[in-house]
Design brief:
alpha+beta; two-stranded antiparallel ribbon; 2 strands; elongated; binds zinc ion; YhfH-like; YhfH family protein
């Protein structure tokens, strides 16, 4: 797979949603998280 097609693959994915509050999770965030930054931070407490 070329780098170009990998970029296209991720571009075509639907936006991820936080499994906690349903807010859209930005892809720049950790790929493995299913929660938004806010919920993730609160879960660390
Ligand atoms: Zn959230």
């Amino acid at each position: 797979m070329t780098l170009g097609s990998v970029v296209e693959f991720f571009r075509n994915l639907p936006p991820k949603q936080c499994s906690c509050c349903g807010k859209e999770v930005r892809e720049m965030h950790d790929c493995y998280t299913h929660e938004c930054e806010k919920c993730e931070t609160e879960n660390l407490k």
